[in-house]
Structures are given as structure tokens and as C-alpha cells.
Automatic annotation (TrEMBL):
Signal peptide span: none
GO-annotated biological processes: cytoskeleton organization; negative regulation of apoptotic process
Native species: Micrurus surinamensis
PANTHER family: OLIGOPHRENIN 1, RHO GTPASE-ACTIVATING PROTEIN 10
Top-rank lineage group of the source organism: Eukaryota
Name of the featured protein: BAR domain-containing protein
């Protein structure tokens, strides 16, 4: 079952059931905020690990590309040429793979991480700030009411 809707008219009555629905909405917002925060943390960790893997793969590809057989005798054999060509081809494959991985990581950052960070800060952050402001004003209101109720009629 989803959250009960909040009706504007109910805020005037300020009934216990309305307060209960408000608390449920606040709890859901907090849960969503924590989930997004954890998702962002995991995403950034994944991207950092991907960059480390990419750097290691690129280094390995360079090593494969730079490897050269010292042939025995006067000329390279067909097997040596085949192995050399295979290593060079595999090196190019790894290089292309890492270029695509880099594009994917950038795409994930631009299309997922940054919009989620923006949403969390601007939307959920604004709601939290408004709640703090509301709680502060409510506290001032209650303390004023208490102060006036405690005054004696002279």
C-alpha cells in the first residue's frame, strides 16, 4: 500500500490522522534520501574502480603492443609472426574496449550521478530545510502560547 494523500483542507484541522500521514511522508522522504545517498556512493565507488581497471588494462595493452620476439636464426618464423600479430591485435582490442569503458563511465556520471545529486540536494534538501524552518516556527508558536497561558489575569 502506498502513502495516504495529504489534503490541503486537512492541515486546518491538524488532526492526529493528518499528523500520522505527515510523519509517514517525512519517513518516506528520509528513506528515499538515504537510498539515493547510498546509491550515489556506490556509483562513485564503481566508477573509481572502473577507472583503476581501465588504467591497468591500458598498461597491459601497451605492454602487449610493445612486446617483440627476438627471433632465432636469420628470419622470423610464421608462428612468431602470427603470435606477434595476435598480441598486437589483442592490444588494439583492449585499447578500444577501454575507450568505450571510459565513454560509458562518463555517460553514467552525466546521465545518472549528476542528476541524482542535483535532485537530492535541490529537491530533498529544500524539503528538509522547510521542515526545519517549520519546526522552528512551531516551537516559537508553542512557547508563545505557553507564555501567554501562564500569565496571570491582573
Amino acid at each position: 500500500m502506498g502513502l495516504q494523500p495529504l489534503e490541503f483542507n486537512d492541515c486546518y484541522l491538524d488532526s492526529p490522522s493528518f499528523r500520522k500521514r505527515i510523519r509517514a511522508h517525512e519517513a518516506e522522504l528520509e528513506k528515499t534520501n538515504k537510498f539515493i545517498k547510498e546509491l550515489l556512493k556506490d556509483g562513485k565507488t564503481l566508477i573509481a574502480a572502473t577507472k583503476n581497471l581501465s588504467a591497468a588494462q591500458r598498461k597491459f595493452a601497451r605492454s602487449l603492443r610493445d612486446f617483440r620476439f627476438e627471433f632465432i636464426g636469420d628470419a622470423e618464423t610464421d608462428d612468431e609472426r602470427c603470435i606477434d600479430a595476435s598480441l598486437h591485435e589483442f592490444s588494439n582490442f583492449l585499447k578500444n574496449l577501454e575507450e568505450q569503458r571510459e565513454i560509458m563511465a562518463l555517460s553514467v556520471t552525466e546521465t545518472l550521478i549528476k542528476p541524482l545529486e542535483k535532485f537530492r540536494k535541490e529537491q530533498l534538501g529544500a524539503v528538509k530545510e522547510e521542515k526545519k524552518r517549520f519546526d522552528k516556527e512551531t516551537e516559537k508558536n508553542y512557547s508563545s502560547l505557553e507564555k501567554h497561558l501562564n500569565m496571570s489575569a491582573k
